Write a sequence for this structure.
């Protein structure tokens, strides 16, 4: 087994230094929030759309209890995604100022 570390975050851009906190914040903004915006939130949105379609399908097919539960879970998921966007934007605005 190799003793190499698995690197999830990309390398720092050229000219980047860890000398001040703003450089660190810029690094986190481009990596962590970029991952959330560009990958995780769109994926969650796609799953949300599939859940709404599946819940509607189940409801129309006569399995109303399962359909209602799936649609309820989708609405709760939508609220969580919206709250995540608000929190991310708030943190970015606070940190950027």
């Amino acid at each position: 087994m190799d003793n190499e570390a698995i690197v999830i975050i990309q390398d720092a851009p050229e000219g980047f230094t860890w000398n001040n906190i703003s450089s660190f914040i810029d690094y986190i903004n481009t990596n962590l929030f970029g991952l959330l915006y560009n990958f995780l939130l769109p994926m969650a949105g796609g799953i949300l759309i599939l859940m709404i379609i599946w819940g509607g399908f189940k409801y129309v097919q006569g399995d109303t209890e399962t359909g209602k539960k799936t649609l309820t879970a989708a609405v709760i998921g939508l609220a969580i995604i919206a709250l995540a966007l608000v929190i991310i934007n708030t943190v970015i605005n606070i940190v950027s100022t």
